[in-house]
Amino acid sequence: MLDSLYSGIGRLLGIEGISGIQWMLGNGLPPTLLAAILIGALFFAFWSYRRENVSQRKNLLVVLRLLGIFILLIVLLQPSVSLQHEEEGRSRVFIIVDRSKSMMIQDDGETSRWNKAITALTETTKGLLSKLGNRHEVELLTVGDQVNSSTTDTLADELPEAESSAIGLSLDSLREEDLTAVVLLSDMAWNAGDDPVNIAAKLGARGVRVFPVPIGQSNSPDAAILAVHLRDRIFPGEEILLKVQLNASPQLEGMSTLLSVTLDGNPIVQQPVVYKGGQQMLEIPIKGPELKGRIKLSLELEPLEQEVTETNNREDRFVTFIEQKVKVLYVEGAPRWEYRYLRTVLMRDPRLDVKFLMTEGDPDLADYSPEYIGSFPVLGETAADFDLVILGDVPSRYFTQQQMEWMVQQVNRLGGSLLMLGGSLHAPQTYGDSPIAPLLPVKIEGDSWEVIPNDVVISPTEEGLSGKIATLGVEQNLARKLWAQVSPLYDAPPVSAKPGASVLVTLGRKQVQGRPYPLVTWQRYGTGKSMFVGTELLWRLRKTVGRQHHEKFWSTTIQFMALSRLLGGSGRITLEVDGTRYASGESVRLHADVLDDYLEPVLADDYAVMVRKSDDSEFEPIELELRPALGSPGFFQGYYLPPSSGDYEIKAIGSDESQANIARFSVYEESIEMRRPEMRIDTAEQIASQSSGEVVPVEEIVSLAEKIEQRRPRYQREISIRVWDHPALYLLLLLVAGWEWWLRRRLRLV
């Protein structure tokens, strides 16, 4: 019955598909109150004619008066009616055009990928836009590092200048849209945002087909330096191995070029290169020159004429040449296996100047062995010379209160490091109430070691694998396997990681207070570092997985712990940056550790440093204010956005300049877009497959007008009609009032 009523109202109003009617009052009165008013009006109409002797016309008069009152109520109450109905819309198609830098590549040496895309859309055989526009509602988008709406007029004026291609982001922006299909014109070389293949799968699940139109050559002739592997801290005269990863397209296979290596602009190596038509690794031994400080290392491939871009032929790195050997003091109790092997690693490292102290060893050893000392260093004489102190299984009672406080100050104020090696007799359990306890990255929970089940294996953390210590000199998956093969540990000291400490290696399923057991842990403390190794059986690495991995662990650990002081600067102020290489437009994070003349943290609202471009005398130095880091007295930090590419320096200002190091970094006008400029046909095929779409060659793009079906969606629309201000209503009121007046006059009631 309602359907018939809705249909009749629809025919009356000329609206098809009415599915619902809703009444509303403009002044907010509820319908129940309106009904009450109408009933009241009815009684009023009857009451007003109760004494009139006109029974034959009384009903008609009552009806007219009631009708008049009703019309007045409509005007006063301002009712409106809302009609819900369905409309059939046009199918929607989105066209996305990639405007990243790689679209400027001219694969044929004449026409860029961008121009090919524009031509396909607007000109070739009337263009795709006009063809689709006849059957669909078409919307045009461009994508680089962000997604923008566009038109044919604005598209012609745009240039592909984006530094990245987030085509996954462009597809993801359509997930909530009601659409039929997406056409993607791109070289498919995405390098930012979500994987477009995954997003295409989500669109496909909604019945939205994606049609990739790949533009460019999948094997554009190009060679590139993909990566440079080199320690960034080198000792003068040290022989280093420079590993360079190259990539060359198949067209360049067999062709020759030169790889030039320069230090501080001075050539040191020219290495002939024969391209293999794919990825290849070069190993170039370099004798470390007698240089000091932070020096720029540059590598450049001589470009071939056939290459589509030369942007990826150069790579720059900063290398720090250490001016002196790292001084290490190793204090051990009784000789043990870990001491034996660690001593060998320390003695073999030409970068180290090591002294040993055996508290329970042969007392004559110090007299006959120059690397051994007879007692702990005297405060104020030689103690401050050490960059790293290693504490083995030595009881805390061996040290005086003053000596332990010195070790704390050595780390906290002077930028040194302390490494404690767990031992079942004394370390760390005897240090729970000592001045050294706050220095350690672990909290000592008891006095005796705990037994470990045999099925618990050693496991590196993700944080550990992101660095060099826990990787053992191999790739991450292999490192996990090597650690798991180490013979089970019998027991472990009762410790838990402190908040903020970095846990590098854990004991598998063993938990402490709901967290993995911290087998290898470190933290920053003041201006230096501290580390704890919770076992005396790491030497089993040699037995189970190889001597080289055990030695790699310790050599990397010693370098990580000891070099911070040497690289920390020339005095009480340490300036640092998070990295040495930044892309144009990337913010640089700056740090400053500031101590006063008494080696106490400086408490201030800010700390000023100067940033200048070191290779451009015309660049005006900029003074920056670093803000205090919460909870770290004397530690300041801030951000700087370099305005252009080049080499930069961070210096302290005024009287602080002589007490601080100079931090350096470089900014490059590099584009990840141009690292791999070839068109990715595999990405296009995966996008099409996941969304039930189809890869369409750019030459056949007009055929998409027939491939994309018309899917007319139905939309719920709402039409609001204001009843109270319709002219017919006022005309009816006039007629009713006039009729009643005329009738009353005929009946002599007026």
Protein described:
- The chain is of the alpha+beta class and 750 residues long.
- The chain has 5 domains: 2-87 and 718-746, no CATH class; 92-218 and 678-707, von Willebrand factor, type A domain (Rossmann fold); 223-318, Immunoglobulin-like; 326-564, 3-Layer(aba) Sandwich (Rossmann fold); 573-672, Sandwich (Immunoglobulin-like), CATH 2.60.40.1930.
- The protein is 26% helix and 31% strand.
- The protein is built from 18 helices and 36 strands.
- An 8-stranded mixed beta sheet has the order 17-16-18-19-27-26-25-22, sandwiched between helices. It has an 8-stranded mixed beta sheet with strand order 28-30-33-32-31-34-35-29, with no helix packed on it.
- The protein is extended, with a radius of gyration of 40 Å.
- The mean pLDDT is 78.
